[in-house]
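Re: export button greyed out
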Amino acid sequence: MEVRQSKHAANASTAGPPRHSVHDAANGHFRAMTLYAEDPDCVKAARDMVGSYLRTWGIAYAVDDAQLITSELVGNVVHHAIPDDCLAAPGAGRRIDVWLMNWPGLLAIGVSDEDSSPPDLPGGEFISPDLAGDFVEALLPDRGRGLLIIQRLADALWWSPGLNGGGKTVWARLDLDRLWAENSA
Ligand SMILES: Nc1ncnc2c1ncn2[C@@H]1O[C@H](COP(=O)(O)OP(=O)(O)OP(=O)(O)O)[C@@H](O)[C@H]1O
Ligand SMILES: [Mg+2]
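Workaround output, generated via the alternate export path:
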């Protein structure tokens, strides 16, 4: 009991501006879901979870973009992630964690896997639409579109190394004020 009281006192006396935690329902929301790449419905499960929570949180206008981003990120784990030796367990499925964080005006979607090799993030515009003329579809690659689509939909796309000595998380950020304005236009 004494320990609890002293921890509480230490937290309460922390100097500086108030910190807004995503775990505080007044400031934001946080959800995490664990899936396995071997589950045939793992992409659908992730999409459903995202749709369900965003509607509950009152940001239904972000559902379409958030679900597409989640589908591409989870699909990438299914197709590309090879677990690091230190994380691979014989016979075990490949673990995927989907993170949803919602602060006022902001939604972050993260998808973690056990492969520390980074995603091949798009560098920029490859072919000018002007140059492609009427043959835009013929010039698009068969693969490598997923992260490009996310880059177009999201306000930021990046990755971070895993905290447990392996793996990584690919993140996308949606600015909700922009999305709201676009949906209301
Ligand atoms: N989670 C991941 N783990 C390891 N490599 C990844 C991961 N996500 C993406 N990559 C790498 O980045 C590349 C680009 O991903 P992107 O989603 O843009 O294209 P793609 O998955 O190859 O094709 P598409 O999404 O069009 O079906 C992939 O080909 C892969 O090499
Ligand atoms: Mg992909």
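Helices lie at 2-12, 42-56, 63-80, 129-132, 136-139, 146-153, 176-184. The button fix ships in the next patch.
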